[in-house]
Amino acid sequence: MKKSLIAGNWKMYKTPSQSVEFVKLLLENLKEYEDREILICPPFTSLFPVSQIIKNTSVLLGAQNVYFEEEGAFTGEISPVMLKDIGVEFVICGHSERRNIFGETDEMINKKIKKVAEIGIKPILCIGEKLEEREAGKTFEVINYQLENDLENFEKFENLIIAYEPVWAIGTGKTATPQQAEEVHVYIREFLSKKYNKEVAENLRILYGGSVKPENIDALMKEKNIDGVLVGGASLKVEAFKRIIDYIT
Ligand code: 13P
Fold this sequence. Notes:
Radius of gyration: 17 Å
CATH architecture: Alpha-Beta Barrel
Mean pLDDT: 97
Strand order of the largest sheet: 1-2-3-4-5-6-7-8
Bound molecules: 1,3-dihydroxyacetonephosphate
Oligomer: single chain
Helix content: 40-55%
CATH class: Alpha Beta
Shape: globular
Largest sheet: 8 strands, parallel, barrel
Number of helices: 11
Structural class: alpha/beta
Distance between the termini: 16 Å
Strand content: 15-25%
Low-confidence stretches: none
């Protein structure tokens, strides 16, 4: 059975001590789930202390970014080998904030997902259109371009996760409707099926991200092709994140 993935992207929020406090609270009364995985992606400085607390629990650890070399003179960067050593199992690659604020290109993102998968960490590849692109009817064109370029010569599909995050829905309170999200998820699966094969398309988890909250999680998770969510703001509060984890379909 394909488990769903409920992931929290904390972005640049929470000091190490705040992160530890959050995780301790989250772990209190956290149920054991057979059908879903729970992932948190704190800032780099919180990864190690959080890794010590979630050891031997069902909560998984992810980073928000990575460089595509294993080591070297790359001041300020963090390598996938370093992440793996402290128990990081997932890395968000190509988040729209990395693309739009820090100028990450599809070529860089492609290098990142390949290197991360080679090291044995699961990349979460983020793709999605901007508002003006959606309004100009270019949503599928943008998705197609990002998939073609970000996945060039990528092979380890059993390790890959794709997150569809429409840029206009991130941090805006404006969620894509479950139907809008489902339509793009279906498009992504069809792309994978045509370009690779049916097995790759069916086994790969496609997450939705963009203003996911307790009020809309149930409706989103009812859609057939939504295999989980990548949550920003609502993953910073224990109560809200717990309600999202406990989604009902
Ligand atoms: P929000 O949930 O705050 O809209 O952020 C979504 C996101 O960017 C997750 O990666």
